[in-house]
Amino acid sequence: MKILKNKAILLIAFLVTITTFSQEYEESQKINYKTGNPANWPANLDAVRAAPKNHKILLENDQVRVLEVYLAPEEKEPLHHHKWPSVLYIQEAGDFVDYDSSDKVIFDTQKLPEPLSFPLTMAKEPEAPHSVVNLSKTKPIRLIRVEMKPENNNQNIRIIDGLYKAFAEGDIPSVMEAMDKEIIWNEAEGNAYADGNPYMGPEAILNGVFARVGAEHEYFKLEDIELHEMSNNQVLATLRYDAKFKETGKTYNAQVAHLWTLKDGKISAFQQYVDTKKLNDAMGN
Fold first, then answer.
1. Which of 148, 179, 205 represents a domain boundary (last residue)?
2. 175 lies in the same domain as 144
3. Residues 6+ apart with CB under 8 A from 74
4. Residue-by-residue pLDDT tens, the chain, 285 positions
5. Same-domain status, 176 and 211
6. 198 prior amide bond cis, ω within 30
7. Are residues 205 and 144 in the same domain?
8. What pTM value is reported for the model?
9. CATH number at residue 254
10. Which range of residues forms the domain containing residue 243?
């Protein structure tokens, strides 16, 4: 117990230290990496599993995983991901290039207007599969990465938030990717699209709901979205539909609630609640 307590004290001291560095960290040195839905990333590409030579666990518990990261001069680390948000304290580095899973350049220090100064601290969102190449012939890359494990509900909120953002951008493939293969989907009773309830699986939802909504509406927007944490791996979304039905030319603005259920980072069930009278009036039903 005494050892664990000492480790906890050291971790707190470390976090305080990097927070102080972070306050001094210049805005111009921020590195913006693309991210995605960690639930879609292969478990075998976790940094510790895929690149154990480069990632050593210093401490791990239910809240954090602290990694010591090291790349020798001219070394390329194996492809890997970081599924949790992180704080990085980069102690030493020369020039390096970061590649994504398709070998496209994510970030190249050689293209910065000014070189990075070290030590450097930064906060990062989950990082999709990537691989860093140390370009220096003499200098290693050394850093400490503190990965912050989210509570299930917080992770679920992020997944559903990402789903709504993808829908707003018309990125239906990403919406479908967030679904479990055995998802059960129910439209509100009295809704015209409830005729296929329960929809089983992403393909049934795509053809029975999304395709019909897209074909029958001039526009269909989700507005005023608010997400609420629930127990049992559920997220409640309250929002409004702002839409125009093609056949009748009528518009509607309806109050809506969506109840999402998640399992292992994927959406396993959906239940819609909506003012069906407004929908049916606009559709001429």
1. 148
2. no
3. 134, 135, 136, 137
4. 444 444 444 444 444 444 443 444 344 445 556 566 787 888 899 999 999 999 999 998 878 999 999 999 999 999 999 999 999 999 999 999 999 999 999 999 999 999 999 999 999 989 999 999 999 999 999 999 999 987 654 788 989 999 999 999 999 999 999 999 999 999 999 999 999 999 999 999 999 999 999 999 999 999 999 999 887 889 999 999 999 999 999 999 999 999 999 988 899 999 999 999 999 999 988
5. yes
6. yes
7. no
8. 0.51
9. 3.10.450.50
10. 152-283
Q: Tell me how far apart the alpha carbons of residues 108 and 129 are, in angstroms, rounded to a whole number.
A: 16
Residues 6+ apart with CB under 8 A from 172: 166, 206, 210
Among 97, 129, 148, identify where a domain stops.
148
| One domain for residues 143 and 6 | yes
Q: Which two tokens stand for residue 204?
A: 């049934």
Cα distances from 9 to residues 143, 147, 190, 237, 279, in angstroms, run 20, 17, 58, 39, 58
User: What total number of domains does the chain contain?
Assistant: 2
